[in-house]
Amino acid sequence: MSDAPEGWPFAEPYKAKMIEPIRLLPAEDREKAIRHAGFNPFLLQAQDVYIDLLTDSGTGAMSQDQWSALMRGDESYAGSLSFQELGLAVTEILGFPHLLPVHQGRAAEHILFRTLVKPGQVVPNNMHFDTTKAHVLNVGAQPVDLVIDEGRRAEGDHPFKGNVDVARLDDLLQRHGEEIPLVMVTVTSNQNGGQPVSLANLRAVRQVCDRHGKLLFLDAARFAENAFLIQRREPGQTGRTIPDIALDIMSLADGCTISAKKDPLVNIGGLLVVRDRVLFEALRTQTILYEGYATYGGLAGRDLAALAQGLRESVDEAYLTFRVGQVARLHAALRDADVPVVSPAGGHGVYIDAAALLPTVPRHAFPAWALSVELYRERGIRAVEIGTVLAGRDAATGEHDYPAMDLVRLAIPRRVYSDAHLAQVAEATRRIARRRETVPGYRMVYEAPVLRHFTARFEPV
Ligand SMILES: *Cc1c(COP(=O)(O)O)cnc(C)c1O
Fold it and tell me: What share of the chain is helix, strand, coil (3-state, %, to 5)?
């Protein structure tokens, strides 16, 4: 962010009351740990990790108000006070009249798709997140990604690389309208770097949906970060408040699936919210079947109470300025060190173009995987490969399904690490870049038939 308060360094708009010790293992112990883990960062023990940037999902720190809400949680089976409080927060922050709590984001996807989507149908999205894609496929439908072309490239400074290619959406609806039960848009788009969608683009998508009589749902795990990036980047939005922009985003949708482990600042939870009463009743039936009764949805009353408070805190501008700014500062530090990164910075993480950083590691030796292992060896940092290992094999040919980019994602947990921690990450990456020809590629020696990245084992080549 270029909004540094002239000359002053950035500081968190909160202070610590309780601390969790972390330690950097000596180099030889890190070597042993990663070898023991089959050179797979997922298989490391968390206490052997110094700075954990594996994911921003459920890894945030709750506030004192959330912890005290937790203590006041009402554990009544039906109609608990905590559910009523969550309802008020959903109305106030998201503007939806009907809500179903669920245990996490994918549960909302499961219930929405099994209710609305039939085998053989097509679901368009800017970019499906992996669980969303899996749930579309699970009901026998076809996911289609319609992000703008700029969103598929690492370079270029388009401010809204999550935008939907509206002409292609219109064309798809014209040709296959009957087979499309709903349109989805992911805010921000996780799959290509936490890239935001503009309000103008969402309005255009809404118009196309109206013209074709289609429901519009948002995959809104990071709606607040998206609102913040609209405020900072979209013409005409600068002077507006984050809650106003968030309500504008929501007003364009018929409903949302939300992983509350992201922007809503809780460690577990999810939401399915809708406007239409009849649709709500159909979704409620499925929620009771799969998640639990409709006023708790697989969560404890205290989880609902913490989520209600987290939703309110998620749109706080001081918090978002520090958080999204912190991501941008790490992005700038890496860019200044000539580390190739997906640009511009997104809302929740920095994505390194590992194939470009490590030209001596061929694609079949997994450059992004190699970089993720090297970050641990260099400084005890855990990151995640968003590349060939994650993509898996092509069902038809059995070959690796090489994605366009081989990326390492540095996902930043919310309210957990200071800029000093992230300076360690930037320095480690700089040092690896300086000795890049010493970084080995990897050979996969074990892989499971599905979701292989979680359990695969490797050897350096
Ligand atoms: C995390 C995530 C989900 C799935 O949510 P879970 O809580 O992990 O089940 C869906 N969509 C997006 C964009 C996400 O980031």
Answer: 45, 15, 40
369 and 449 housed in the same domain? yes
CA-wise closest residue to 254 among 220, 286, 293, 284? 220
Ligand 1 centroid from CA 266, angstroms: 13
385 CA → ligand 1 middle, Å? 17
User: Domain boundary at 250, 281, 314, which?
Assistant: 314
Q: Are residues 295 and 231 in the same domain?
A: yes
Domain that holds residue 218: 64-314
pLDDT tens figures, 160-185: 999 999 999 999 999 999 999 999 99
Distance CA(162)–CA(159), nearest Å, equals 9
Residues 158 and 302 in one domain: yes
Cα-to-centroid distance, 65 and ligand 1 (Å): 25
The residues annotated as belonging to the active site are 77, 129-130, 219, 221, 262, 453
In a domain, 243, yes or no: yes
Ligand 1 contacts (CB < 6 A) are 57, 104-106, 129, 131-132, 186, 190, 219, 221, 259, 261-262, 270
- What is the band of 1 on the pLDDT scale with cuts at 50, 70, 90? very low
Asked if residue 409 and residue 383 are part of one domain, the reply reads: yes
